[in-house]
Specification:
Belongs to the DsbB family. With 174 residues, the chain is an all-alpha fold. The chain has one domain. The protein has 6 helices and 2 strands. It has a two-stranded antiparallel sheet. Strand 1 and strand 2 form a beta hairpin. The two termini are 19 Å apart.
């Protein structure tokens, strides 16, 4: 199976999710929470690895290395989505924060990046992880997007275990 179209699909899917996140931030006016920023970073990493795999078109160990990186990114983003939905399901008096020192860690990470409007827009968080400021049909944005992150993780796991055969049609004496 040639995995190049799958890598391109993953890259485009990540771009669409990041575009939707920017739409909700810039047009709708929703501020991302620190967990949302971590999901954006995971999506950027998944998209970058996917486009590199698409361009490189690896076989053998290279394919497994790209696949392992994609699976790790997919599981990380799905874990963040599940944690955020869990935080939203807690009663307000028991609600925990986004994580111990997560906001401080993100701020120190952002200071090492080139400063500019793109970095500020993508990675600055201003909302609480347990605050629901937008919903549709009674579902918050994390509840609506978590199935997408979980499906992406399952898709990447499926892709990892698919046997790659990039040399279809070549002559062999076996």
């Amino acid at each position: 199976m040639n995995k190049r179209p799958h890598y391109l699909f993953v890259f485009i899917f990540c771009l669409m999710l990041l575009g939707a996140a920017l739409f909700f931030q810039l047009v709708v006016g929703l501020e991302p929470c620190p967990l949302c920023v971590l999901q954006r970073l995971a999506l950027m990493a998944i998209g970058l690895v996917a486009v590199l795999a698409f361009l490189h078109n690896p076989s053998g160990w290279g394919d497994k290395a790209y696949g392992l990186l994609l699976v790790c990114g997919g599981l990380f983003s799905a874990g963040i989505a599940i944690r955020q939905v869990w935080l939203l399901s807690l009663p307000p008096e028991e609600a925990a924060s986004c994580g111990p020192g997560l906001e401080v860690w993100l701020d120190s990470f952002i200071t090492y990046l080139p400063q500019g409007s793109v970095t500020e827009i993508l990675l600055r968080s201003g909302a609480s992880c347990t605050e629901v400021s937008w919903s549709i049909f009674g579902l918050s944005l994390p509840q609506l997007t978590s199935p997408l992150f979980i499906l992406l993780a399952f898709y990447l796991i499926w892709l990892f275990f698919r046997r790659g055969n990039n040399h279809v049609g070549t002559f062999s004496m076996r």
